[in-house]
Amino acid sequence: MVSKMIMKMKNNLSNMILLASVSILAASCGKLGKSSKGGLPKNDGQLHGVSLGNKYTIPRPPGMIYVPQGTFHMGANDEDISYSFTSRNRQISINGFWMDATEITNNEYRQFVYYVRDSIALAFLTDTSSKGKGFEERRKVLKWNNRKWLSDNLSGLMINQVEFPYAKEIDVSKLKFLYRSYDYKKAAEARPDRLGDKNYNRDDFIISDSIPIYPDTLVWVRDFSYSFNEPQSKQYFSHPAFQNYPVVGVSWRQATAFCKWRSNYLNEYLDKNKKFPESDFRLPTEAEWEYAARGGRSQSNFPWGSYYLRNKKGCILANFKPGRGNYPEDGGFYTVRADAYWPNDFGLYNMSGNVAEWTSSLYDQSSYNFMHDMNPDVRYNAAKTDPPRMRRKVIRGGSWKDVGYYLQTGVRAYEYQDTAKSYIGFRCVIDLPAAQRAQTNQFKKP
């Protein structure tokens, strides 16, 4: 009994000594790690570093999923039956990034359209009462549902008279987004230290373009000959029934412009609230898209981890063209909601089927042979004067009108960057700093 009491006292004493040691260590570490709140530190002849400001507190992007860093075998898992050899299997390592859980929806793209619409309208107005106010306050003077106000202020500028004298609509050809970006690839190739190279300014690498941003609603009629699809053309982007469906009729250039606007929209808010600007939203590279689509299943044909398009109950697992043209068998005739079907293991919806998706990558048949094995990225900013083969961009995932072969995670396809289709959409990714990457809580779109 006495020995037990002695042992208990020794244990308590050991715990007290350990607790005191930890407290001293924590206090000393806190003192050593203390830094300035911002600006230059007090000069005491010692190295303290210069803090950039307050604690980093960027909110996690809503509707996005964190895709952790990892490695996988990129390319076809099955036999290359056409012997095209455009996607030879090789091991690739990918850094972590955030990706939209679903394709960008009509509702989300409409926010972009309305922002551009209101910005242009405010530039036309002569009313100076809102001068000096922020954009959100200034746009309140716009009365898009008041026909008289539209006629008095914007008729002939943004509003066209249509068939009936009492009806007016926006001239969507006026909705253009001034797109500016920095060409890092071109800047990296410039070497003023080499003999004969000139000294460059930062302005030499600025890309600038004015891009019409309204979706091409006529793609539903244009894409299919001898096929009645006028109802989709009239309603798909403008009817509430389709507000959570993936946006289509958007070219690669329009998708890129959306990413740039989304970046500006976020950074304007951060700047207004005295927070640091963030990385740009962008289209995923081809390798990032495939890595995300696989969901950690490196050797699987489809995002759900199977070699088949149906589960064991016979239910179809994606929106595509089953059989020889039984479009409604999978539950959707055209597209379906962006969050339909089960997500993959990363939490991403419709990485196969529904709509194919733009990537940032140039389509080159031999790119798998020369691209790097670390974050591979084969990119080219094609000009309008470039030959058509230089304007091809990789699309991935297959769509509602494709057969099952194109739904495989390792299958490549392409479309021209100026082309819009009724079966191609997109989603964005963003690279957040390492401190943020550690926070892997997932968020779903409402």
Oligomer: single chain
Task: Classify the helix fraction into a percent range.
Answer: 25-40%
* Residue windows where pLDDT falls under 50 for at least 5 positions: 1-6, 15-36, 437-446
Strand order of the largest sheet: 1-4-14-9
How would you name the CATH homologous superfamily of the largest domain? paralog of FGE (formylglycine-generating enzyme)
Query: Major β-sheet, in short?
Result: 4 strands, antiparallel
| Count of helical stretches | 11
The tally of strands reads: 14
Strand content: 5-15%
Average pLDDT taken over every residue: 82
Which sequence of SSEs, written as H and E, runs from N to C?
A: HEEEEHHHEEEHEHHHEHEHEEEEH
The number of distinct structural domains comes to 3
What is the CATH topology assignment of the largest domain? paralog of FGE (formylglycine-generating enzyme)
Using only C-alpha atoms, the radius of gyration works out to 27 Å
Q: What's the CATH class of the largest domain, please? A: Alpha Beta
What would CATH call the architecture of the largest domain?
A: Alpha-Beta Complex
- SS-based class: alpha+beta
Q: What does this 3D model show about the protein?
A:
A hairpin with a 6-residue loop joins strand 5 (159-161) and strand 6 (168-170). This protein has eleven helices and 14 strands. The chain has a four-stranded antiparallel beta sheet. Strands 12-11-10-13 form a four-stranded mixed beta sheet. It has a two-stranded antiparallel sheet with strand order 2-3. The chain is 26% helix and 13% strand. It is of the alpha+beta class and 446 residues long. The relative contact order is 0.16. The protein folds into three domains: 62-105 and 213-446, paralog of FGE (formylglycine-generating enzyme) (Alpha-Beta Complex); 106-175, no CATH class; 176-210, no CATH class. The protein is globular. Mean pLDDT is 82; it is low at 1-6, 15-36 and 437-446. The termini are far apart.
